[in-house]
Amino acid sequence: MDPRVRSAIHLLSAAAEHGRNADLRDLAASLNLSPSRFRHLFKAQTGIAPALYLRRMRLERARQLIETTFLSVKEVRSGVGVNDDSHFARDFKREFGRSPREHRAHITRE
Question: How open is the CA angle 55-73-69, to the nearest 5 degrees?
Fold first, then answer.
């Protein structure tokens, strides 16, 4: 894997883990790439766009927090860096097959 993409993955993972925003233009600049070249290289190496990668990382982190903490869904959403309730719920359901609240209820029943 291209070391620039490996570095980008590390930075995107850290942003998702800590609920920070990752500006893809700044990320591309830090790797000495134009934003369009960065997106192209990232997608060629990983199969998905960097923005989608970041969203999936945030959703995965949110799933982990919902399963392992007593944080409210709102606190989880905020903690992974998502600002919009409806987008978060819709994206979570698309990724995992149920809403964050339904997922927590399902996990606690097991």
Answer: 95
